[in-house]
Design brief:
Elements (H helix, E strand, L loop, with lengths): L2 H7 L5 H15 L18 H18 L16 E2 L6 E2 L8 H22 L15 H23 L7 H11 L9 H8 L23
Antiparallel strand pairs: 1-2
Length: 217
């Protein structure tokens, strides 16, 4: 990696990065056939509709986590959550199925916009709990990006649509959340590898993984 590329990868993850990823994900998923959303999402026990709802719920929960004046440092904000069926994701937010896939994507876009707005307006000194580390607003943006790019990957494979997030955003997110990931490989392939979804030459496929949400020194 060149010095310029390394510097770019080490740049902060921003609300603009997250906003771009949400926009691109919604655009890609809008290409899916209307009858495809009951298909399984790749690598998950959920169908594509449930997976998109899970992603929207992640955005909502992450936005809420940095919303209070004194964010929780030992738990999530205690919204009630449940599963729609055994094995379905446990979540607070669901889309009205009567609104169809277009309504589902609107829920996804709106929830993403909530997280973008919270990251953009939160005091950089804010800290809030996540099980993988107490994070600042940049960390919540990066976590939202990981959720978005990898679950859109899962969805795209199930729905039969194309998905390729920008390499620069992937590189900055890797730098922020995955300090032990290689830096001399393709950023998107590396992010898939780091989340147990892909392989890299010379490296074992991961069967367990985590990110590190706390601010980088």
């Amino acid at each position: 990696m060149s010095a310029a590329s390394a510097a770019s990868a080490a740049a902060p993850v921003t609300a603009d990065d997250l906003e771009q990823i949400v926009r691109l994900a919604v655009r890609a998923l809008a290409e899916a056939p209307a009858d495809a959303w009951a298909r399984p999402a790749a690598g998950l026990e959920w169908d594509c509709w449930e997976t998109a709802e899970h992603l929207a719920d992640d955005f909502f929960a992450y936005a809420a986590q940095i919303g209070p004046a004194a964010p929780p440092l030992d738990r999530y904000v205690p919204f009630a959550a449940d599963a729609a069926r055994p094995g379905a994701p446990v979540q607070t937010l669901r889309a009205d199925r009567a609104a169809g896939p277009a309504g589902l994507l609107q829920v996804l876009e709106a929830s993403g916009a909530l997280l973008v707005a919270m990251v953009r307006t939160a005091d950089p000194a804010t800290r809030a709990w996540h099980p993988m580390g107490t994070a600042d607003p940049e960390g919540w943006a990066a976590m939202g990006i990981v959720e978005a790019v990898v679950h859109t990957h899962d969805l795209a494979a199930g729905l039969g649509v194309d998905w390729q997030p920008p390499a620069g955003i992937c590189a900055r997110t890797l730098h922020r959340l995955f300090p032990d990931a290689p830096r001399d490989t393709d950023p998107w392939a590396t992010l898939l590898w780091a989340t147990g979804r892909g392989t890299l030459p010379g490296r074992d496929r991961l069967t367990a993984w985590r990110w590190y949400a706390q601010p980088r020194p």
